[in-house]
Specification:
Homodimer. The protein is an alpha/beta fold and 428 residues long. Helices cover 32% and strands 20% of the residues. A hairpin with a 2-residue loop joins strand 3 and strand 4. It is globular. The N and C termini lie close together (6 Å). It binds guanosine-5'-diphosphate, 6-O-phosphoryl inosine monophosphate and magnesium ion. Guanosine-5'-diphosphate binds next to helix 1 and strand 3.
Length: 428
């Protein structure tokens, strides 16, 4: 099983970090292919808790080579501080590889991100303010700065000047902000160049060779399917492609080389930031999910919006990603409810709809159609096999599997590495 993709099936924060870390011990490379430090991936190893933003979760597994692919946007200051934070905790980060084609997030990108949100006012997206959107915009506009530009000073100067020519007009004339000096940005970026240099590599060549040699490569998505700029709830999305295709464009590995695509699926639903969310709860159940599930953002500290499981979304994730498996996380959080509502379809303008509507206006007023499933009260956090689960928890998992369109091959019953029930091996 040489290459597999692991991605979020909902709106992010499904538990991707834990799932990646779990497999990390058995894989040779863990590769981030999109997004940047907007991600917040939590990994709990014994009594140690790690919050990773830009680095692949595989960095915590000795023997695994972490890779930042060309599709990722990299804030060099964040990269270096995340690395030194891990080094201080005794984690060896020397194997990291960084694509020379990855785009750099600079201070002007974070500034533009923040002022744009302020300018949008009530219509804001609720971004993480990390400069993600403006950096991808520059990439598509062909005025981006890439990692490799750090090693050609005159090119770097020309590119930063070209980018700021236009951006300064917007900052000064539209947003009433002071213009940003190109020389200052160039100096700052050059200050990172030497420290980053040992990691820079031709990651496309390395990854393709690794797969050809039978090495196991895991592509780790940031964000989630419904935050995808093409397939998500646009414009309330991030600016990259977390869906499976992004693993190809974001690394230079062709789709014929990918064998398995695993969707990480929370046993209920959460979302951070603005945008439609049909099963969102505003009552004590929503509050209970937030408290029991610890649903507070790892990156921005914002409370996550919480709601019941939405099978329409899970089916959609199966479709647009070609999922082969699900990893169901946080089943333990649902312990204690007498009955658990699950959204099986939507009602839109009086009609029952089974698939995610392609029209944004329809999705905005989709009402969930719920089926009630019986709950359980037993502690499931020690369960090691599927049959250790109470009958009603087993039935809940089976019902979700049937509705979602792909087998559930693992179940999370707690945040720790060992709090997982493995049903089918992901690596066989
Ligand atoms: P990611 O962005 O997809 O990596 O997810 P986050 O780290 O933002 O949020 C997931 C949270 O759930 C983290 O606090 C994890 O430690 C925690 N978590 C992951 N899997 C489980 C699980 O099966 N049960 C419980 N209770 N917590 C989990
Ligand atoms: P992980 O990898 C949840 C959301 C933001 C906002 C929108 C756009 O931890 O699952 P951006 O800063 O990307 O331009 O913000 O996307 N968002 C996330 N929500 N988990 C994430 O990452 C997210 N990364 C971005 O809240 O609504
Ligand atoms: Mg997260």
């Amino acid at each position: 099983m040489p290459a597999l993709v692991l991605l979020g099936a909902q709106w992010g924060d499904e538990g991707k970090g834990k799932a990646t870390d779990l497999l990390g011990g058995s894989v040779d490379y863990v590769v981030r292919y999109q997004g940047g430090n907007n991600a917040g991936h939590t990994v709990v190893v014994g009594d140690q808790k790690y919050a990773l933003h830009l680095l692949p979760s595989g960095i915590l597994s000795p023997g695994c080579t972490p890779v930042i692919g060309n599709g990722v946007v990299v804030d060099p200051a964040v990269l270096l501080s995340e690395l030194s934070g891990l080094n201080e905790r005794g984690v060896d980060t020397s194997k990291l590889l960084l694509s020379g084609n990855a785009h750099l997030i600079t201070p002007y990108h974070t500034t533009v991100d923040k002022v744009t949100e302020r300018f949008l006012g009530k219509r804001k997206i609720g971004t993480t303010g990390r400069g993600i959107g403006p950096t991808y915009a520059d990439k598509i506009n062909r005025v981006g700065i890439r990692v490799q530009d750090l090693y050609d000073e005159s090119i770097l100067e020309q590119k930063v000047e070209a980018a700021l020519d236009f951006k300064n007009q917007i900052l000064a004339k539209l947003y009433n902000r002071r213009a940003i000096e190109a020389a200052q940005i160039v100096d700052e970026l050059l200050g990172y160049a030497e420290q980053i240099k040992p990691f820079v590599a031709d990651t496309t060549l390395i990854l393709n060779n690794a797969i050809d040699e039978g090495k196991v490569v895991l592509f780790e998505g940031g964000q989630g399917t419904l935050l995808d700029v093409d397939h998500g709830t646009y414009p309330f999305v991030t600016s990259s492609n977390p869906t499976a295709g992004g693993a190809c464009t974001g690394t230079g590995v062709g789709p014929t080389k990918i064998n398995r695509v695993i969707g990480i699926l929370k046993a209920y639903t959460t979302r951070v930031g603005a945008g439609p969310f049909p099963t969102e709860l505003f009552d004590k159940d929503g509050e209970a999910l937030r408290t029991i599930g610890g649903e507070r953002g790892v990156t921005t500290g914002r409370d996550r919006r919480c709601g019941w499981f939405d099978a329409v979304i899970a089916r959609y994730a199966t479709r647009v990603n070609g999922l082969t498996d699900f990893f169901l996380t946080k089943l333990d959080v649902l312990t204690g409810w007498e009955q658990i509502p699950v959204c099986v379809a939507y009602e839109i303008d009086g009609k029952r709809v089974e698939e995610l509507p392609y029209s944004q206006s329809d999705f905005h007023h989709a009402k969930p159609v719920y089926e009630m499933l019986p709950g359980w009260s037993e502690d499931i956090s020690k369960a090691k096999t599927f049959s250790d689960l109470p009958k009603n928890a087993q039935a809940y998992v089976k019902a979700l599997e049937e509705m979602s369109g792909a087998p559930i091959s693992a179940i999370g019953v707690g945040p720790g590495r060992d709090e997982t029930i493995e049903i089918n091996s992901f690596l066989s």
